[in-house]
């Protein structure tokens, strides 16, 4: 369980800037109030969906989508991120907690295609080399291209590419 902490407008803008000019299925793992999914859709990332367990946040996400004119165009699913198959995802957004990142890194490495990009907010994946980063302090986000992450892991058999 990761406590709900809404993303700031700058965090949202930074995360989506790192996904600019990309395409394909976009998911937000632990989508909270849905603001990242709605903005991803507005930016042209389709399909855009969020996985969230909290029913109140799912309701808030649906309301936010309706307010933005995206009702029926984005999806918010009550699913455990550990149980969903991410093999068809090309853009993954994660604003979670440091304790979740190590096991999540293993899941992402196992499931995502080489062409996928992961954007992490608040906390980076410490053993992954970022392809790019944007912002500073609490507004900072990191982008990881899975092909580069896998290449770095192969070059460092101990698992830590840095």
Helical residues, percent: 25-40%
The name of the CATH topology is Rossmann fold
**CATH level 1 name:** Alpha Beta
- What's the architecture in CATH terms? 3-Layer(aba) Sandwich
Give the amount of beta strand, in percent. 15-25%
Please summarize the sheet with the most strands. Answer: 7 strands, mixed
Shape: globular
Instruction: Give the class from helix and strand content and strand pairing.
Output: alpha/beta
- Largest beta sheet: what is the strand line-up? 3-2-1-4-5-7-6
- Please report the number of helical segments: 5
Give a summary of the structure in a few sentences.
It contains 5 helices and 7 strands; from the N terminus they run αβαβαββαβββα. It has helices spanning 9-17, 35-42, 55-67, 101-111, 146-155; strands at 26-29, 48-51, 75-77, 91-94, 117-121, 132-134, 141-145.
Give structural notes:
This protein is an alpha/beta fold and about 160 residues long. The protein has a single domain (about 20-155), classed as Rossmann fold (3-Layer(aba) Sandwich), CATH 3.40.50. Helix content is about 30%, strand content about 15%. The protein is built from 5 helices and 7 strands. It has helices at about 10-15, 35-40, 55-65, 100-110, 145-155; strands at about 25-30, 50, 75, 90-95, 115-120, 130-135, 140-145. A 7-stranded mixed sheet has the order 3-2-1-4-5-7-6. Strand 2 (about 50), helix 3 and strand 3 form a beta-alpha-beta unit. It is globular and about 45 Å long. The two termini are about 30 Å apart.
């Amino acid at each position: 369980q990761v406590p709900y902490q809404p993303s700031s407008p700058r965090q949202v803008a930074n995360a989506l800037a790192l996904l600019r000019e990309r395409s394909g299925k976009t998911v937000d793992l632990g989508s909270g109030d849905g603001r990242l999914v709605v903005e991803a859709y507005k930016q042209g990332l389709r399909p855009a969906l969020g996985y969230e367990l909290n029913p109140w946040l799912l309701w808030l996400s649906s309301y936010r989508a309706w307010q933005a004119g995206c009702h029926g165009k984005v999806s918010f699913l009550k699913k455990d991120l550990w149980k969903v198959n991410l093999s068809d995802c090309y853009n993954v957004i994660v604003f979670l907690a440091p304790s979740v990142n190590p096991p999540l890194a293993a899941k992402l490495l196992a499931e995502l295609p080489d062409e996928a990009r992961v954007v992490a907010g608040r906390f980076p994946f410490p053993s992954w080399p970022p392809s790019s980063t944007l912002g500073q302090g609490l507004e900072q986000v990191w982008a990881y291209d899975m092909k580069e992450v896998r290449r770095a892991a192969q070059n460092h058999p101990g698992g830590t590419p840095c």
